[in-house]
Amino acid sequence: MVNTPTPYSISELAQEFTISTRSIRFYEDQGLLQPVRDGTKRLYSKHDKLRLKLILRGKRLGFSLKEIKELFDLYDAKLSSSKEVTGLIDSIKLRKLSLLQQLEDIQVVLMELKSAERRCNDALNKLTKD
């Protein structure tokens, strides 16, 4: 007997990720999730659960749903010709460059915030000593 994994309901995923069921249905409408239907019930797989986690992470990082879908498409691409593989490699390189630039920008902003915080703390210390 094969042990098939128990699917997740929409309410279980919503509760686990603290999002609304409406959000999950929206991601499904956008083609990002593909639950199996059992009548009117949606049954989500481990694959869907992982994708939902990646969607939410991507959103926290500032990715649009279109960009997240493009990343999923890159991951799911069928690599049946050298032209497709070369195109995929080029897309991956561009995405990596973009992310590295974002990382650099974030690091600069963090340094500026630390500097501003330090100046504020110094000013506060000076004001409380007076």
UniProtKB/TrEMBL annotation:
GO molecular function: DNA binding; DNA-binding transcription factor activity
Domain HTH merR-type: 7-74
Keyword line: DNA-binding
The organism's place on the tree of life at top rank: Bacteria
PANTHER family from the UniProt entry: HTH-TYPE TRANSCRIPTIONAL REGULATOR YFMP, REDOX-CYCLING DRUG-SENSING TRANSCRIPTIONAL ACTIVATOR SOXR
Listed name of the protein: Predicted transcriptional regulator LiuR of leucine degradation pathway
